Amino acid sequence: MFSRDIADYPDGIVLPVDKPYRWTSADLVRKIKRAACRHFGKKNLKVGHAGTLDPLATGILLVCIGAATRRAEELQASPKQYIAGVCFGATTPSYDLEKDIDRICPLDGVSEERLRAVLPSFVGEQMQVAPLFSAKSVDGVRAYETARKLLREAQARGESFDPGDILQSARINVYGCELLKYDERFDAPEPVEPTEGRGRIKVADVRGAELRHADILIDCSKGTYIRAFARDLGEALGSGAFLGSLRRTRNGGYDISEALSLDDALALLGSNQE
């Protein structure tokens, strides 16, 4: 447990926390901030994070407390590593399971052999268009706000969702990607209904869709969207793809083996209560 005096930590505290599934990064930070403010007896203690994780992703989220918030940008700029579970044969508007399948795609060009042949072309510096369902700012508006509006309008017209040419591409770097596992058939789990607070994010039910699946280890630079990587990989195989799962295993010099569960992080701050 930490001491009760934040002055004992002049450089602040960096907590590598394993973000729970279906929690937003902001949810986790708010939870830890409440515990930290109580623990250190401070009403306005600065608490932030170094690099957002999508709600349906798990893995390392670096939570910065006190003076460590000044290091957030430095930590966020570091290389990152992910294990991406990519589903082939369909697309979703969000490129993950936050939205339902909107298009079924052919699987003729999807195989382990083709995937191994295509992956090297994704290594190196490249331009990438971020998902429209993302926190990128477009003319001062978060992209996901524009995306939700466009999706509602398309559904009202009975049309498929077309994000159009809204986001500009950005330069990223993929240092390496390795196929860990390939399955000709993907048995999607039954989604659990969202609840208030913890795990409130909806998860699409893709059971019944004919999908193929691959686990891919990706080392990349700051600003790389793994959902967009999945989208582009599906297109490269003449199909469509989305993320079925995502886990960040390295960030800011921390490895997933060093990450604390949320309960353990709260216990260090003298709280393990919901």
> Low-confidence stretches at least 5 residues in length (pLDDT < 50)?
none
Strand content: 25-35%
What is the mean pLDDT? 87
Architecture per CATH nomenclature, i.e. the level-2 architecture of the largest domain: 2-Layer Sandwich
When the domains are counted, the total is: 2
Under the CATH scheme, which class of the largest domain?
Alpha Beta
Query: What name does CATH use for the topology of the largest domain?
Result: Pseudouridine synthase
- Class of secondary structure makeup: alpha+beta
Care to describe what's here?
The chain has helices at about 25-40, 70-75, 110-120, 145-155, 225-235, 260-270, and strands at about 15-20, 45-50, 55-65, 80-90, 90, 105, 125-130, 135-140, 140, 170-185, 210-220, 240-250, 255. Strands 1, 2, 3, 4, 7, 10, 11, 12 and 13 form a 9-stranded mixed β-sheet that branches. A two-stranded antiparallel ribbon has the order 5-6. A two-stranded antiparallel sheet has the order 8-9. It folds into 2 domains: about 5-80 and about 255-270, Pseudouridine synthase (2-Layer Sandwich); about 80-250, 2-Layer Sandwich (Pseudouridine synthase), CATH 3.30.2350. The mean pLDDT is about 85. About 20% of the residues lie in helices and about 30% in strands. It is of the alpha+beta class and about 270 residues long. Strand 2 and strand 3 form a beta hairpin. The longest helix has 16 residues, at about 25-40. The protein has 6 helices and 13 strands.
